[in-house]
Design a protein that fits this description.
mainly alpha, Glutaredoxin, Glutathione S-transferase Yfyf (Class Pi), Chain A, domain 2, 2 domains, 8 helices, 3 strands, binds benzoic acid
Length: 202
């Protein structure tokens, strides 16, 4: 299988963490891809019309996207068991969506300064993205710590990848100060070999 990949993407990282947790990194060949909303560059637009990564070319079917489809597929293929049975599944999927939403806002904040021309940038828009992340951090801190204390699933991985990306691109926001339980959880989760092997890089 071919995985279209960029080392900074928190969504690609979710897939890579799953592969490491399942001891299955040898099942994919990484294909570098780079681009952004103003220029798809080498993004696989012929494979994913949205021009986004990760995208997974697989035998016997169309290329899969987005990260949540790919992780469900690989979890099934590899029997990784990173999606629990219902009813716990509903919590896992909600936490995964929370992590993915945080990562999406953090990537949009990054694009605003790295891609959008200076005269069109909006500080208010950036702060509105951060407000989403801040609310999600509080939801994790207030509602989901008991789940995060349990067996590792794709909810943990999505939140871990989102926090890793926030540290990578938005370290000045100091999210740990107001979210001490989440910060303590992340210190332990981020030490897992699968997280250490996939740390974001420019
Ligand atoms: C980044 O460089 O921050 C980035 C790269 C690919 C996807 C998302 C973010």
């Amino acid at each position: 299988m071919k995985l279209y990949h960029a080392p900074a993407s928190p969504f690609v990282r979710k897939v890579m963490v799953l592969l490491h947790e399942a001891n299955a990194t040898d099942r994919v060949t990484l294909v570098p891809a780079a681009g952004h909303p103003l220029d798809p560059g080498t993004m696989p637009v012929d494979r994913n019309p949205l021009g986004k990564i990760p995208a997974l070319e697989r035998p016997g079917g169309p290329t899969l996207y987005d990260s949540r489809v790919i992780t469900r597929y690989l979890d099934d293929l590899l029997a990784a068991r990173l999606y629990p049975a219902a009813p716990r599944l509903w919590d896992t999927l909600t936490i995964e969506a929370t992590g993915d939403g945080m990562a999406e806002s953090a990537v949009l904040m990054r694009y605003e300064v790295s891609v959008r021309p200076e005269p069109s940038r909006s500080a208010a828009w950036v702060e509105a993205q951060w407000a989403k992340i801040d609310r999600a951090l509080s939801a994790l801190e207030d509602r989901w710590m008991s789940h995060l204390a349990g067996p590792v699933d794709m909810g943990h991985i999505a939140v871990g990848c989102a926090l890793g990306y926030i540290d990578f691109r938005h370290a000045e926001r100091d999210w740990r100060a107001a979210h001490p339980a989440l910060a303590a959880w992340f210190a332990t989760f981020d030490a897992r070999p699968a997280m250490q092997a996939t740390a974001p890089a420019a």
